[in-house]
């Protein structure tokens, strides 16, 4: 079936916000003489409300309560400093340009918040041209790996799952897309490249490697 819409995750897919986020927490842990457990951190990628809480874990390691408000203020400042250096990931601009040429509908589908997404789209000059931006906005029940965000995006775009392709970078995102009945292309980033993305229909190293014609033929 002809592709009519492209659905993009945001964090780690369009912009690599995942590397700065983990780096900020790693700095926080090292300030207290410990290392962030990367296997447990992986459960947080692409979702919200996961069981692992870095602050609770760090308090367990140091054996004393921490001033979480002060630490989080420092951590957020460090994360924003790093993430504001990030540009669109390779291949994003070309794929969006092809989508415009083919008159495809495009949406961002994210477990993050609208303000976060719009903040970065604004600084990158990409805050227009989207047909929909669907975010969890703190609602754990809507966040990936639940399919709710994708189902809402399809409804807003007026598309069936068979008419769209989802692009994801994390296992939680892939599971959400597949649960919504979508064909899913996984594009790992430096944080997710060691995670299992085999539930996706295809895995590519970069969006630069994506051919919409090839995807239409493969589906």
Protein model, in words:
The chain is an alpha/beta fold and 219 residues long. It has two domains: 5-16 and 88-218, 3-Layer(aba) Sandwich (Rossmann fold), CATH 3.40.50; 18-83. Helices cover 41% and strands 11% of the residues. It has nine helices and six strands. It has helices spanning 18-31, 38-41, 54-62, 68-83, 92-101, 114-123, 148-157, 171-179, 212-218; strands spanning 5-8, 105-110, 132-135, 164-168, 183-186, 202-203. A six-stranded parallel β-sheet has the order 3-2-1-4-5-6, sandwiched between helices. Helix 8 links the parallel strand 4 (164-168) and strand 5. Helix 1 (18-31) packs across helix 4. It is elongated, with a radius of gyration of 18 Å.
Q: Which key phrases capture this entry?
A:
alpha/beta, Rossmann fold, 41% helix, 219 residues, six-stranded parallel beta sheet, single chain
Oligomer, anyone?
A: single chain
CATH topology of the largest domain: Rossmann fold
* Structure annotation, total helices: 9
Q: What is the averaged pLDDT score?
A: 94
* CATH H-level homologous superfamily name of the largest domain: HAD superfamily/HAD-like
- Percentage of β-strand residues: 5-15%
Apparent shape: elongated
Q: What does the radius of gyration come to?
A: 18 Å
Number of strands: 6
Share of residues in helices: 40-55%
Class by alpha and beta content? alpha/beta
The end-to-end span amounts to 8 Å
Regarding CATH, which class of the largest domain?
Alpha Beta
Counted up, domains total 2
State the strand order across the main sheet.
Answer: 3-2-1-4-5-6
Please mark out the parts with pLDDT under 50 across 5 or more consecutive residues, or reply none: none
Largest sheet: 6 strands, parallel
Provide the CATH architecture of the largest domain.
3-Layer(aba) Sandwich
- Write down the secondary-structure element order: EHHHHHEHEHEHEEH
